[in-house]
């Protein structure tokens, strides 16, 4: 499987980006840091195996409206092409199909194409970065050969070691052969202890030991039968595998015989038939192309001969193009000459008309006598403008003087009409106004504060007086307790209250428990007739006393009784024995119940004692609480207060102290109010003395009257000041205007005098003032402008006539050099015709050059095709000679035989794989020998016999299990004592726990054994091939420094690298770079091994050469470039020197840049000849 193109949408830094890939050779993708190399590697991983969830995927877009998507074009090993689309989602995220057919590809089909590979395996084997490579080489330091090969195959060597370690740790936590603290060991020890207790505490009948012995023999028989069953089962499985493998083996032998009959050259390639057909097709195609090229050469020669043109036109091309460019200008000349002549005559007529308007007697040649210097002309113009301005200012200033006189009179009348206020009274009121306002404001604030405080006192007094026995005197504060004292009583009362509640709760709980135990005891006594120990002792005492009496009679130690007297006593003794036995039997049968009855009775006695003790504790706590409350009331008795709870009295104390502070604040504010009232009274008396303030007014009205009076007086004063200032300003303005008028009269006289001096030049025209002189100067300037324009037009007309003559001469010269007969045409027409002829000649000349170049290319192509055709014919002849045939038909027959042989070898390999699957873990050589010597009929007989034997063993096992169950049941019926029952219950519970532990231990041991067997099988089947491949790759990477990788004979499973001079090193002795090269060689060897039997996957490596020096980088790049052509290898890097190194390799090794720019080959820098230094890697070290 090879990537051809990858389109990414909204995946990390790649929003909408396309990546092309080549099918052959090593491919290098270069990008700077953060250009998206790691993102590209991860996108290929998730393309193949699905996007991670967006919530945990660092490459997912931030916007919920955007989704990750990847589209890829792939080429499979068989040459078929398909296109797949991977989208973000939870299910059915892959869709696509084959390009050349309508077959679709879904998740199921895709997994089949991947040959069962998963994302973890791909990430560590095919698509890995420097991090995975470094992790793998670290674990190689202590790895043995099995782990290196098998773990390298898994791609997660460190994971494999961790897996084995975790299995061993979990198994050791469950069981060790000599352990004590492990779960199974501790359970077995406890079961053994309980069985001993069970054996000692049980009351056994006489046959109990026999039953126990039979049970042990049954268990031994079960163990033996199970061992025999396992042996027979393995024998049965072996025969069954032989039965299933025999048809495959027969078919394999047949195919091997068929393969031996297919005789074909061993060196002839398997795909020679396809290559032969391709070569024939190429030869036919080349022959057809050669014929076409011959026809094309003939056509080109004919076209070249038909092209004719005047070459002199080409030689005079620049001159003709210059004439064509000047045609427009010449035509403009012919059009403009009459127009310019008319404009010249119009300028002369207009100049003469203006001159006649000045003086009809003047001529144009007399205009020069009226010319003034530039300074005089400017002076006349400035004097005229200045005179006009001065006259205008004189006329406009007269009404302004009249207006100023009128406004001054009006302002003086207004000033006399304003009333005058007493300045002394105004000053006194202004001085006392602010203090009066502040006093009134402070008085209002103090009265409002006193009112608020009085209201607070009335509101809070009720809560204070509720605990008082007499009226309060606010001048003398009460000696209330401190806050710390109240807090101490509060804490003590809370603690004692909590203790009382807790004690009462425990009393209730104890009482409830006591009632429950009494009910339980009552139920036990009602359900069963229990025999107490006292009753049993009493019955046994009577029995023993009667027996003692009878024994004395029988031994002659007392007087003998008559027979009729002895008989009742013996019967009584017999009844007493039976009664004691019955009572003992009852106690035995109800031993557990009786033990429980006694336990409950003991618990009731304990609870009664506990109940009485807790009741006494509650009484003591209540007395302690009463004493504490008495001490609390004594603290407040000196204040005449009957206290409430400490928490309430603490709040009362704070409220009382606040009221005391409020009363003190009221007295302070009343004291501050007195000076304010005196200040207000003094101001009122001042206003009353002026007799301007109305009687019976409030302080606020008085303050308003003062403000109004002061504003009115201030307004009058400001108005008077303003009027005085305006009068003075108007007077100053009138004086200034008068002075300006006098100055303007003086300026006008100076202007007239200066103008008279300059205008003496116009004396011949009569009296000319300054204004008329300005008009004369303008007219003379206009006349001179018309005369200047007429002179320029005359010069322009002369230049255009000269240009026409020059153009005509140039046309005549070109006609003579080209031998074209165009003399009868006007020059402009002749130039146009020459331009047309030049264009046609250049077109034909260009066509002839194109045909000549095409003839050269076609001729070269013809020669190349003839050489290629000859090469193909030589290749066919070489093949015919190689297989000793004379015709292509015979060569095709040999190719078909080679293809059939190759197909037969593939079928044989498939059958061998099937046979290996059937063989499972059996040793291959012995299994093959068994198949070779197999008798099918005898196999059927042996298999039937083994099956019957297995069924008989199963039946015997069932019988033994049944017998053991019956014996165990009898034994359990005997063990009826309380201790035996309890021990038996614990044993059953422990056996259940033991079963759970064994269920956990079994899979662990099986997994460990399966891993060991898989590793052994992997080593036996592949270790030789893989070691040879690893050695070959490592030798090339290290440039022959290490030539072989072999097992370490001194350490089982060890690994050694053999170098030049038979030097051997362990992985731990290697440098970091060399260990990484070793691990890379192991990966590549496994990739090659894996792809032989499965669909190859694209290999992506992200900056794995960081720790390689320059020489080994180049050597490794050569290994990657020359690797299996069926496997696509893509190398990602951010190091520019690697680009030059890849470019130096032979073959086609494409290089792409992630930023889309072109790849520039680096030129090698010249080496200095003065000093040699050792080679050093141009890429930075990982550490």
Globular, elongated, flat, extended or rod-shaped: what is the shape? flat
Instruction: Write down the oligomeric state.
Output: single chain
Biggest sheet features:
5 strands, antiparallel
Number of strands: 13
Uncertain segments of ≥5 residues (pLDDT<50)? 139-146, 152-158, 1163-1183
- The helix-and-strand class reads alpha/beta
Instruction: Give the mean pLDDT.
Output: 78
CATH class of the domain at 1-117 and 1094-1183: Alpha Beta
Return the CATH topology of the domain at 1-117 and 1094-1183: Rossmann fold
Name of the CATH architecture of the domain at 1-117 and 1094-1183? 3-Layer(aba) Sandwich
Using only C-alpha atoms, the radius of gyration works out to: 65 Å
User: Roughly how much helix do the residues carry, as a percent range?
Assistant: over 70%
Q: Strand share of the residues?
A: 5-15%
N- and C-termini, Cα separation: 36 Å
Query: What's the total helix number?
Result: 28
Largest sheet strand order: 2-1-4-5-6
CATH level-four homologous superfamily name of the domain at 1-117 and 1094-1183: P-loop containing nucleotide triphosphate hydrolases
Which keywords apply here?
1183 residues; alpha/beta; Rossmann fold; five-stranded antiparallel sheet; 28 helices; 13 strands
Description of the molecule:
The protein has a five-stranded antiparallel sheet with strand order 2-1-4-5-6, covered by helices on one side. Strands 7-11-12-3-13 form a five-stranded parallel sheet, with helices on both faces. Strands 8-9-10 form a three-stranded antiparallel sheet. It has 28 helices and 13 strands. The protein is flat. Among the domains are: 1-117 and 1094-1183, Rossmann fold; 273-310 and 828-882; 317-370 and 769-819; 374-417 and 700-765; 426-472 and 661-693; 483-646. The relative contact order is 0.14. It starts with a strand and ends in a 30-residue tail after the last strand. It has 1183 residues and is an alpha/beta fold.
């Amino acid at each position: 499987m090879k990537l051809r193109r990858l389109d990414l949408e909204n995946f990390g830094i790649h929003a909408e980006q396309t990546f092309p890939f080549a099918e052959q050779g090593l491919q290098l993708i270069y990008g700077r840091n953060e250009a998206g190399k790691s993102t590209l590697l991860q996108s290929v991983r998730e393309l193949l195996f699905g996007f991670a969830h967006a919530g945990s995927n660092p490459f997912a877009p931030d916007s919920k409206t955007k989704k990750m998507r990847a589209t890829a074009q792939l080429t499979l090993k068989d040459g078929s092409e398909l296109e797949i689309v991977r989208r973000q989602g939870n299910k059915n995220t892959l869709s696509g199909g084959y390009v050349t057919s309508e077959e679709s590809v879904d998740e199921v089909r895709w997994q089949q194409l991947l040959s069962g590979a998963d994302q973890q395996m791909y990430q560590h084997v095919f698509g890995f970065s420097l991090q995975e490579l470094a992790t793998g080489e670290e674990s190689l330091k202590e790895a043995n050969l099995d782990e290196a090969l098998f773990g390298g195959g898994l791609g997660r060597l460190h994971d494999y070691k961790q897996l084995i370690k975790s299995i061993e740790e979990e198994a050791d936590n469950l069981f060790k052969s000599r352990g004590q603290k492990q779960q199974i060991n501790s359970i077995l020890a406890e079961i053994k202890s309980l069985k001993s207790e069970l054996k000692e505490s049980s009351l056994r009948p006489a046959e109990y030991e026999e039953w126990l012995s039979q049970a042990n023999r049954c268990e031994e028989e079960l163990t033996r039968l199970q061992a025999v069953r396992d042996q027979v089962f393995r024998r049965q499985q072996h025969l069954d595998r032989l039965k299933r493998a025999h048809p495959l083996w027969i078919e394999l032998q047949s195919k091997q015989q068929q393969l031996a009959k297919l005789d074909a050259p061993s060196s002839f390639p398997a795909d020679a038939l396809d290559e032969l057909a391709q070569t024939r097709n190429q030869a036919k195609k080349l022959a057809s192309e050669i014929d076409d090229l011959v026809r094309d050469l003939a056509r080109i020669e004919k076209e070249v001969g038909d092209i004719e043109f005047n070459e002199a036109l080409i030689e005079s091309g620049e001159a003709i193009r210059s004439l064509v460019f000047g045609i427009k200008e010449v035509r403009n000349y012919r059009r403009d000459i009459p127009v310019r002549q008319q404009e010249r005559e119009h300028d002369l007529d207009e100049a003469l008309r203006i001159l006649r308007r000045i003086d009809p007697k003047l001529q144009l040649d007399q205009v020069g006598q009226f010319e003034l210097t530039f300074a005089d002309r400017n002076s006349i113009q400035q004097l005229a403008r200045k005179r006009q301005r001065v006259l205008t200012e004189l006329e406009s200033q007269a009404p302004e003087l009249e207006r100023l006189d009128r406004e001054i009179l009006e302002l003086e009348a207004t000033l006399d009409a304003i009333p005058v206020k007493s300045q002394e009274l105004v000053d006194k009121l202004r001085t006392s106004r602010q203090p009066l306002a502040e006093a009134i404001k402070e008085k209002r604030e103090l009265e409002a504060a006193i009112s608020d405080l009085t209201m607070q006192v009335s509101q809070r007094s009720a809560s204070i007086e509720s605990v008082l026995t007499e009226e309060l005197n606010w001048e003398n504060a009460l000696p209330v307790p401190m806050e710390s004292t109240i807090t101490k009583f509060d804490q003590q009362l809370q603690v004692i209250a909590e203790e009382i509640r807790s004690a009462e709760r425990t009393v209730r709980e104890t009482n409830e428990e006591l009632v429950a135990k009494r009910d339980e005891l009552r139920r036990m006594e009602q359900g069963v007739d229990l025999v107490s120990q006292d009753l049993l002792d009493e019955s046994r005492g009577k029995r023993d006393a009667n027996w003692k009496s009878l024994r004395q009679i029988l031994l002659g130690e007392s007087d003998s009784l008559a027979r009729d007297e002895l008989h009742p006593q013996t019967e009584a003794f017999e009844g007493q024995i039976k009664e004691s036995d019955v009572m003992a039997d009852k106690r035995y049968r109800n031993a557990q119940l009786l033990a429980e009855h006694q336990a409950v009775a003991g618990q009731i006695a304990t609870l009664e004692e506990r109940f009485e003790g807790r009741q006494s504790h509650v009484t003591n706590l209540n007395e302690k609480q009463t004493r504490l409350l008495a001490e609390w009331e004594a603290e407040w008795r000196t204040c005449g207060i009957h206290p409430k709870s400490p928490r309430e009295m603490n709040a009362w104390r704070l409220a009382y102290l606040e009221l005391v502070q409020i009363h003190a604040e009221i007295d302070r504010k009343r004291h501050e109010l007195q000076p304010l009232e005196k200040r207000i009274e003094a101001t009122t008396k001042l206003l009353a003395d002026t007799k301007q303030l109305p009687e019976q007014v409030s302080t606020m009205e008085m303050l308003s009257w003062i403000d109004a009076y002061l504003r009115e007086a201030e307004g009058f004063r400001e108005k008077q000041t303003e009027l005085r200032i305006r009068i003075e300003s108007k007077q100053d303005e009138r004086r200034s205007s008068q002075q300006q008028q006098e100055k303007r009269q003086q300026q006008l006289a100076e202007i007239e005098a200066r103008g008279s001096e300059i205008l003496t030049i116009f004396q011949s025209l009569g009296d000319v003032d300054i204004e008329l002189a300005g008009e004369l100067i303008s007219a003379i300037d206009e006349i001179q402008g018309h005369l200047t324009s007429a002179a320029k037009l005359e010069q322009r007309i002369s230049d255009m006539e000269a240009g026409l003559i020059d153009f005509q001469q140039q046309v005549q010269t070109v006609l003579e050099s080209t031998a074209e007969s165009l003399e009868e045409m006007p020059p402009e027409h002749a130039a146009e015709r020459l331009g047309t002829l030049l264009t046609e000649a250049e077109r034909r000349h260009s066509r002839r050059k194109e045909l000549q170049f095409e003839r050269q290319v076609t001729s070269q192509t013809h020669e190349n095709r003839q050489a290629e055709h000859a090469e193909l014919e030589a290749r066919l002849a070489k093949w015919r000679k190689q297989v000793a045939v004379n015709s292509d038909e015979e060569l095709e027959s040999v190719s078909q035989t080679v293809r059939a042989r190759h197909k037969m070898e593939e079928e044989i390999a498939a059958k061998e794989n099937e046979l290996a699957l059937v063989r499972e873990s059996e040793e291959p050589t012995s299994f093959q020998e068994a198949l070779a010597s197999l008798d099918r009929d005898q196999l059927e007989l042996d298999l039937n016999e083994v099956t019957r034997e297995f069924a008989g063993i199963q039946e015997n096992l069932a019988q033994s299990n049944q017998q053991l169950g019956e014996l165990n049941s009898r034994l359990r019926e005997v063990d009826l004592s309380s201790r035996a029952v309890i021990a038996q219950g614990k044993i059953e519970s422990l056996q259940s726990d033991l079963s759970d532990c064994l269920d956990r231990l079994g899979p662990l041991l099986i997994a460990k054994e399966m891993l060991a067997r898989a590793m052994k099988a992997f080593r036996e089947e592949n270790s030789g091939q893989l070691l040879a491949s690893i050695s070959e790759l490592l030798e090339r990477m290290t440039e022959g420094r290490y030539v072989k990788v072999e097992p370490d004979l001194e350490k089982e499973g060890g690994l050694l690298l053999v170098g030049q001079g038979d030097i051997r090193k362990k992985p731990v002795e290697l440098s970091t770079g060399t260990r990484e090269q070793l691990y890379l060689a192991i990966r590549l060897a496994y990739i090659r091994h894996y792809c032989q039997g499965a669909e190859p996957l694209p290999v992506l490596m992200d900056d794995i050469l960081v720790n390689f020096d320059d020489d080994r980088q180049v050597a490794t790049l050569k290994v990657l470039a020359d690797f299996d052509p069926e496997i696509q290898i893509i190398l990602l890097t951010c190091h520019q020197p690697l680009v030059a190194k890849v470019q130096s390799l032979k073959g086609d090794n494409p290089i792409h840049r992630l930023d889309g720019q072109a790849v520039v080959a680096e030129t090698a820098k010249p080496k200095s000849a003065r000093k040699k230094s050792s080679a050093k890697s141009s890429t930075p070290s990982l550490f």
